[in-house]
Amino acid sequence: MAGQRIPVVIDCDTGVDDALALLFAVRHPGLELRAVTCVAGNTDVDGVVRNTLTVLERAGAGDVPVARGAERPLVEAVRSARHVHGADGMGDLGLPAPTRRPVDVDAVTLLRREILASPRPVTLIPTAPLTNIALLLRTHPEVTRNIERIVFMGGAVATGNATPVAEFNVWHDPEAAAVLLTAGVPITMYGLDVFQRVVVPGAEVRRLRASTEPGARLAGDLLAHRPAVPSSTVPSPGGADGDDPDGGLGDAGAVCAVADPEGLTTRLLPVEVSLAPGPTRGQTIVDRRVRPGEAEIHGGGRDRAMVDVALDVDVPRYVRLYLGTVTRTAAGGPRGNN
Ligand code: BDR
Ligand code: CA
């Protein structure tokens, strides 16, 4: 409905690019960030809680409740990505400890409470391993009656990052991802195929870093910690126009896709998570065949979830959207020397 903000809840493992996603969600005028829940992933769950509270404080967010969630995956051992996100999990920017505190209920309880209390159905945006979401769906399946859709960052149609075929969030907790896919609500998979393409040019990163406004400056510092992955679809190489390399939006692209779905091209396709031990574990197997194969013809077809899989993204559109949004204050107006 025109004029109404989209109620969203983010489940994250902040995380440099989760932080970029939170900054965007707080400042986008069309989104109402109802809660943030934390899960082990990029770093341990206590580090994720601390980083999340720090970002919300810097962004000037209102009183958004933050809850601590699962400290390890359902079956797998915990395996952080600190080599990518820094020792503190958020770029080692030396930010002061937050004064905010998490709520005194766990993530699953907060998720249930905020989803069911929302006057309008909630869009759930997981940008992390799916452990909290699987626990929620199994503990309180009634939440799906007030979930509009789930837009998750995870998976890949083509190439993985944690392994040659598996993306980190799904690989970290494949069983949880399999539960998510069978949630019975519309699901959009914002996978590596689009995730890696949305890149902010170095000149814009530099401009953000020079801002006097703390939230915009933090966005610049975070982007500077996320040099773009070289790709034939990403033109200008990092650092071509100065000291700052181009910076990937990462998880923030999934939140852009909620605020501006027109920028994303998706196709409804069957998706399955490989739970087998060995080299395919954690792979999202996306069936792009145009006709049934021998497996189906001979009665060996499998039941698979139908998912809106992101296949293409309007990169300049999301970069403009991101920059225009994070240089607003939480209250709405442009700020700083932007
Ligand atoms: C995902 O893994 C994490 O390192 C990022 O925050 C993102 O959610 C990409 O594979
Ligand atoms: Ca993440």
What does this structure look like?
The chain is an alpha/beta fold and 338 residues long. The protein has one domain: Inosine-uridine Nucleoside N-ribohydrolase, Chain A (Alpha-Beta Complex). Helices cover 33% and strands 18% of the residues. It contains 13 helices and 11 strands. It has helices spanning 16-27, 45-59, 82-85, 107-117, 131-139, 168-172, 174-181, 192-195, 202-209, 214-224, 252-259, 294-297, 315-326; strands spanning 6-12, 31-38, 66-68, 122-126, 147-153, 187-190, 199-200, 247-248, 264-273, 284-286, 305-313. The strands form 2 sheets. The protein has a 9-stranded mixed sheet with strand order 3-2-1-4-5-6-11-9-10, sandwiched between helices. A two-stranded antiparallel ribbon has the order 7-8. The radius of gyration is 19 Å and the shape is globular. Residues 231-241 and 333-338 have low confidence and may be disordered. It binds beta-D-ribofuranose (BDR) and calcium ion. Beta-D-ribofuranose is lined by residues 15, 17-18, 42, 81, 84, 127-128, 153, 161, 167-169, 250-251.
